[in-house]
Amino acid sequence: MSTYLADAAENLTVEGPSATFTYRRLGPRGGTPLVLLNRVRGTLDWWDPEFLEHLAAEHDVIVFDNVGTGYTTGIPRDSVEGLADGAAEFIEILGLSQVDLLGWTLGGTVAQDIARRQPDLVRRLVVAAASPGGTVPGAPAPNEKVRATMTKPEVTGDDLVFLFFPETETGRAAGYAHLTRVATRLATGVPEVSEVAAMGQIAAIQKDASIPFEQVRANLATIRQPVLYATGMQDVMIPALAAYTAVQHLADATLVAYSDAGHAFLFQHAEDFAAQVASFLAD
């Protein structure tokens, strides 16, 4: 039986113009809530319960499914701006005037767009294993095996371990431990991300990748909130160079890097990264 509070958190719903949003809320109420934005093909069930447990020890943590994804109704979005608008709609209909955001991978790119276009809504921003958008000078060419795995009609547990964790004994062990922890929620027959929603998210990434770096740099310069950028040095999906490049063009940014981890460093080092987030949000 699971020992994680996240596995017992109830599904809540709220009605918005675009969708009936499903979300879960953990931790003590009060202060600025921390809203999490998910990865491609992820639902709120895929957040690692150990990571949520550490985050919610000190914070009011909210996880949700965006429009047309997982438990949430509506027409799936196919652009970063559309996903950002869906997330902002959800936050506003909860009656929250300001939040902190933590976005992982595509969610991190979406979080940056919200902070840029709706600055009054965001107090602080945590960007995990994400691109600042567009092209990154000097970045290696996309790995074809990664691209092929990511776009498969059905991505297996072995595929996720390959994409998210280093191909080392320690990394693979961390990957399968993560799959074991999320298995409790996934075993309950939850809705999967539809192919339409998944392809929309991939289309959002592809559109974003075409933005020239001059525009990316200008976009980053408009983000005035404090930003914690974090990366795994062995990330095969989004190179650590993307985070290093982004912080050079942000007004107030801190960079954290894990040498032995990849795209899911936040689950491989759940307790440590949650402590990094808590310290950053408390400053």
How would you explain this protein's 3D organization?
The radius of gyration is 17 Å and the shape is globular. The protein has helices at residues 49-56, 80-93, 106-117, 144-150, 157-164, 169-186, 195-209, 213-221, 240-247, 265-268, 270-282; strands spanning 12-15, 20-26, 34-37, 61-64, 99-104, 122-128, 227-232, 253-258. Helix 1 (49-56) runs parallel beside helix 11, helix 2 packs across helix 3 and helix 5 (157-164) packs across helix 6. It has 11 helices and 8 strands. An 8-stranded mixed sheet has the order 1-2-4-3-5-6-7-8, sandwiched between helices. It has one domain: 3-Layer(aba) Sandwich (Rossmann fold), CATH 3.40.50. The termini are far apart. The longest helix has 18 residues, at 169-186. The protein is an alpha/beta fold and 283 residues long. Strand 5 (99-104), helix 3 and strand 6 (122-128) form a beta-alpha-beta unit.
Which fold does the CATH topology refer to? Answer: Rossmann fold
- Uncertain segments: none
Q: Regarding CATH, which class?
A: Alpha Beta
Instruction: State the end-to-end CA separation.
Output: 37 Å
Largest sheet: 8 strands, mixed
Content of β-strand: 15-25%
Radius of gyration equals 17 Å
Please estimate the helix content: 40-55%
Mean pLDDT, to the nearest integer, reads: 94
Q: How many domains would you count in the coordinates?
A: 1
User: Order of strands across the widest beta sheet?
Assistant: 1-2-4-3-5-6-7-8
What is the tally of beta strands? 8
**Shape call:** globular
Structural class: alpha/beta
